[in-house]
Amino acid sequence: MNNDYLTTGIHQYYDREKVELGETVLGTITFITPEAYPECLWVGKRISIQEASHIVGYAEITKIFNETLLKNM
């Protein structure tokens, strides 16, 4: 597992299309290369959301739909 692996994700938010700075929303992120970092997520993990090298937000994992990503603890 590579803990500093960056990938592209498709963000989909519930009840809106865009998130403004400082807002908290619910949504899903679909990673395009999950096979590159199997077993790296667990419920409660916090991941950064980046645009290039700039962190623009954070996501807290509440549910994992792709079993490849699930880390059994």
Word description of this protein:
By secondary structure, the protein is mainly beta. It has a single domain (9-69), classed as Elongation Factor Tu (Ef-tu), domain 3 (Beta Barrel), CATH 2.40.30. It has strands spanning 9-13, 27-31, 46-51, 54-60. The strands form 2 sheets. Strands 1-2 form a two-stranded antiparallel sheet. The protein has a two-stranded antiparallel ribbon with strand order 3-4. β3 (46-51) and β4 (54-60) form a beta hairpin. It is globular, with a radius of gyration of 12 Å. The model has no long low-confidence stretch (mean pLDDT 88).
Index terms:
0% helix; mainly beta; 73 residues
Count of structural domains:
1
Q: What is the spatial order of strands in the main beta sheet?
A: 1-2
- Note the total helix count: 0
- Overall pLDDT, averaged? 88
| Strands, count | 4
Fraction of helical residues:
under 10%
Topology-level CATH name: Elongation Factor Tu (Ef-tu), domain 3
